[in-house]
Amino acid sequence: MTEVSVPELSLVVLVGVSGSGKSTFAARHFAPTQVVSSDFCRGLVSDDENDQTATSEAFDLLHHIVGVRLRRGLLTVVDATNVQWEARKRLIELARSHDVLADAIVLDVSEEVARARNAARPDRAFGPHVITRQRRELRRSLGKISRDGFRRVHVLSGDEIDDVTVTREKAWTDRTHLTGPFDVIGDVHGCRAELESLLTRLGWEVGPDGAVHPEGRTAVFVGDLVDRGPDTPGVLRLVMGMVAAGTALCVSGNHERKLVRALDGRKVRVAHGLERSLEQLDAEPAEFRAAARTFMDGLISHYRLDGGRLVVAHAGLKEAYHGRASARVRSFALYGDTTGETDEYGLPVRYPWADDYRGRAMVVYGHTPVPEPEWVNNTICLDTGAVFGGRLTALRYPERELVSVPAEQVWYEPVRPLTARPPARDPGVLDIGDVDGTRFVETRFGGRIRIAEENSRAALEIMSRFAVDPRWLVYLPPTMAPPETSTLDGYLEHPAEAFEEFARAGVSRVVCEEKHMGSRAIAVLARTPEAAARRFGIADGTAGSVYTRTGRPFFDTRMPELVDRLREACAPLWEALDTDWVALDCELLPWSAKAEGLIRDQYASVGAAARASLPAAVAMLETAAERGLDVGALLDRTRRRAHNAALFRDAYARYCGPVSGLDGVRLAPFQILACEGRATAVDEPHEWHLKTLGLIDSPLVTATRHRFVDLGVPEERDAAVAWWTDLTEAGGEGMVVKPASFTPVPVTGAPPAGVREAGPAGERPEDAPRPARAQPGVKVRGREYLRIVYGPDYTESLGLLRRRFTGRKRSLALREHALGLEALARLAEGEPLWRVHEAVFAVLALESEPVDPRL
Amino acid sequence: MLLTITTTMRPATDLGYLLHKHPGRVQEFGRSFGTARVFYPEADGDRCTAALLLEVDPVRLARSRGSSSPDFSLSQYVNDRPYAASSLLASALADVFRTARTGRCASRQDLADSAIPLEITLPALPCRGGSDLARRLFAPLGWEVDAEAVPLDPGFPEWGDSRYVRLALRGRVRLADALNHLYVLLPVLDDAKHYWLAGDEVDKLVRAGEGWLAGHPDKALITRRYLGRRNALTRDAFARLAEVGDDVEEALEPPVEEEPGTETPEPAETPEATGITELPGTTERPGPGDDSGLGNDSGLGNDSGAGSEPAEARVPLNTLRRDAVAAVLTEIGARSVIDLGCGSGQLLGVLLRDPALTRVTGMDVSARALALAGRRLRTDRMPDAVRARFTLFQGSLTYTDARLAGYDAAVLMEVVEHVDPPRLPALERVVFGTARPSHVIVTTPNVEHNVRYEFLAGDRRHPDHRFEWTRAEFERWVAGVCAAYGYTADLRPVGEDDPEVGPPTQMVVFGRREERP
């Protein structure tokens, strides 16, 4: 039986005359979505699959579809006659432009068979001469089709066509089934002694021509094993042994490439340490030279490992090239991306591709010596210049741990001083593609969350015009929903419904935290400006930022002073948390400190208008009543409204305090969002947060009063209701009820973190049936406070207002909460800035969704 | 909210005939958002007062817009409409006194045709522009105006006055005219967003203004404000974010030029040779900056000029600036240009008329600015030949963006000063590091020149300006950019180069050097 093998990711071009059975063949061996047929495209653009006048545009469409599929990494089969060289050439070019291989499958049937088949189909009305012409063209092609540029041409004829099996072969670069753990090792350049020390440090047992790790780790070499150093044959012997034994993988470096050419006797410029390799290899037996040549010649450009989460290439690799095969992919992997310019040392200026890298796979590479390996957008360069007297470095994966040994000496003088390059680091500039348009953000605790374009656009404007530096903007707080509406006389909100809601969700213990009435504030504080530079990459001497729910800085010019005072106040946290920075979720008091403009423009104005007009109306009505007009009910109502207006004025005035400079400003932190290496908002229960924050003793910081309630004990519920009543009657805004030991659970069915989804599934997450998750918290606001939300006279229309719908708000609260935790988790895991920003930006975008603003 | 109309003619009770409302009764008129009542607190031969009391239920008011649409703001619930004499009162007045407003009175037509002694009080009249503006608008119509500001909150005297005045008008005026004055001028003084009005406002204005509006010295202001805020009928995502951040939405509005008249009905089309037409009303206000805020904040700026400018006619600075930028583009032979921070598209209009430019692109971060630009440039009816040269999109100067690359020139006209200083390095990297056009033209105010604008009183030229540079500061910034990104720079003044304080606007033309530093 004949077998045809095509690459797993490739363009398969069927070739055969009309009636040769291409469509039948394609349907038998490929999924319907993998096959793009010219007849189908012709139908799409003309409503007639045989309308030859539409052929040109039908092929434009076909090429477009094929291009999109290949870009997205999908095997694609083209079902068209492709008997002409030009048609095949366009398809090969298309495959190349997406860096995938192309195979041709030729169905060589006799003219009689094709004619008979066409005759049996009433829609194929064209004359027999068409088949004859196509057949002639095919025959002419067959002789030289192997030179078209296909990886392979499979010619099938007769019974083969029906009997063949089609198999898929993995790409050479595909080692995704290997899950490690790995020790990725930087450029060795003939430094055998250093390599042995490093492997030993990593726990390997090293022999003369091989090494094994007792825990079964696999070494991955980033290439450039050879040249410059003292013992290129020794390094090759060791690595060849490891690769042969299956304990190591190795990708090709540019130096291996050139050494092979030199060994083959090709004309190359003997420089950059090549002379040493040639000299050292000359002293080796011819068999070893041959084996080394074969080994190096067989090295491939890059490997994809661990389900695609890890990519190793000598000079790095941009995402579009992962798993692809073409000359330019190989060139990028071996030589990197260059701008075409040269620097003052005459070396090529490299294009900083890693700055633009947005892939989810970690890319580990070497090639360019750096003084310190640094993470840039989930990529890292391990070449620390061992041969130039630097160090030989390895990365433990998945631990993300760097291990290195110093060079024993300077083995080769560098052309460019090792320290001349500024250290690379995550750039503070983000790309529009990180935030623009309709987006789907993967979150570990809330699944995939959709951000509509209208919302991204509003967020882009606020973010660009008003927000603090994105490196400080590590979190934005989610919105919070109220409980079900109370049916208690005179109340719209009451703790009873909040307790009931959590009890129903299976929560046994909750914490009630006083809700401070001020402005929500996120404080990101570093112990020192140096810590800020190290952790956040902000090197302008600032050591923190305090910003609002929309990312705006508090107190433009006095921000540094506020940050300094807060850093001082937070001193006990540095030791307690073993950190040199912290992000806090707080309320900044008084309300008027930030919102005075809004209070004056909106709330005080309403009060002023009421104060001016209602007494005048009362006076007119009293005069009219004296005249005997029937205005009694209206007069009573107007007097009551005047009273409500006075209560309204008191409600907002309570939260206004004198602020001069920073005097009078207080901060009430209630959660520690994150600190070094930890997303504490994800890991720790509220008790821990409140207790740890209790260590702070400063007049600037206000404690958050709270109490824990066992929902199974009615007395505890009653006591908490009494506490809330006292709190709100004394002018407090209300309280927030949260599950005491809240630990978010990853959403089941979500793709594992680190795997990039192929694209939007078009399904809104809120449409998907999913058991209702408990709210992370609900707010229960006081009766008088609600006057500034629902208006002075809201108590007069409670019946109407009780018909409020909280569903949308609750869904929004869950989504924003999941995004907020996602941002913190990404921050704690050291993910690149754009990944943290993506989630933070999404919170802001969701905040612009229309919901009842009074909830 | 309350309005009283008092007369002292004899017999004063004839007011009842003129208003078509009986002084002995309390009459009710249902409105979608509440109830209007007319009653007479006093009614005798010497003095008769009619009171119009409008009870507004804010819950019903918000619902009267129909639907359970959640697209509303908190300010629609907590607002002054139940108390202040706003457009709601004006529309209630128009309906309740519909016949009186036409000046018809079958039983007392001669009285309806005559000026009579009237006294009108409004205890809480929202008045953007203060009591002075109330005087300015009513006095030319024959009223003696007594306007007293209402304090914002007696508990916080430092907050000063509210936007409300207690207004009393006295004069001998025909009653129908008096009612029409109120009908038109209440919303004009209020100048709030008219969430609850829509429709044929132009016709209504024409009818109600008959006989007095044409001769009013502030006709332009009245027209603009009466119609001006119609575009704010629908709120958008941006406004919701302002609310979330405890910000006043107006304070966040983008700094775009929005001339008077952009809301007036479109005249018959008068396409020019290039096919580019701009909406009418591009009359420009002489002043130091063309940012709308300056004018709007003074309440009158767009109509009367900024106040302390020399009286003689002169070319407005924003025109000089656009001309200077256009001249530089010609000088460097640019074929393609991108206007970064294009605002409402003033410069784009000029650039599209230049046939040498084969590609003209506008970018702004503000969706509202882009909508204004689209309207100004009439993108919906642009000829294909122009459309092929033109692109408009939303983008940001602090995010790198492949769409910004590939132009001969980028223009940042009065843009950098709207960016917080700590974010400038990001902008520099986006423009000079990533987009890297051959030329970049930047203009920004010269703060030294501000002393020539007395009315600024030490303020910046626009409330959204995050800084304004001296010439030395500007030069320092320019030098830093050149060194970091490999550009050369040519500094040029725009406007009259004052020997002491320099020009009002400073401009730099950056040219890219071939090699990177």
From TrEMBL, chain A:
Membrane-crossing segments per the record: none
Region (Disordered): 747-777
Signal sequence region: none
Lyase listed as a keyword: no
Entry keyword set: Kinase, Transferase
Annotated ranges, domain Polynucleotide kinase-phosphatase ligase: 458-850
One MF annotation (Gene Ontology) recorded for this entry: kinase activity
Domain Calcineurin-like phosphoesterase residue range list: 181-371
Name of the protein this chain belongs to: Polynucleotide kinase-phosphatase
Organism: Microbispora triticiradicis
Lineage of the species this protein comes from: Bacteria, Bacillati, Actinomycetota, Actinomycetes, Streptosporangiales
Automatic annotation (TrEMBL), chain B:
Domain Hen1 N-terminal: 1-242
Limits of the Methyltransferase domain: 337-428
Cofactor(s) it depends on: Mg(2+)
Recorded catalytic activity of this chain's protein: small RNA 3'-end nucleotide + S-adenosyl-L-methionine = small RNA 3'-end 2'-O-methylnucleotide + S-adenosyl-L-homocysteine + H(+)
Enzyme class: transferase
Compositionally biased tracts (Low complexity): 262-278
Keywords: Magnesium, Metal-binding, Methyltransferase, RNA-binding, RNA-mediated gene silencing, S-adenosyl-L-methionine, Transferase
Compositional bias of kind Acidic residues: 244-261
Methyltransferase in keyword set: yes
InterPro entries xref list: 3'-RNA_MeTfrase_Hen1_bac (IPR024026), Hen1 (IPR026610), Hen1_N (IPR024740), Hen1_N_sf (IPR038546), Methyltransf_25 (IPR041698), SAM-dependent_MTases_sf (IPR029063)
Listed Gly residues bias regions: 290-304
Enzyme Commission code: 2.1.1.386
Entry-linked NCBIfam families: bacter_Hen1
Family to which this protein belongs: Belongs to the methyltransferase superfamily. HEN1 family.
PANTHER family registered for this protein in UniProt: HEN1 (PTHR21404), SMALL RNA 2'-O-METHYLTRANSFERASE (PTHR21404:SF3)
Name of this chain's protein: Small RNA 2'-O-methyltransferase
Lineage start: Bacteria, Bacillati, Actinomycetota, Actinomycetes, Streptosporangiales
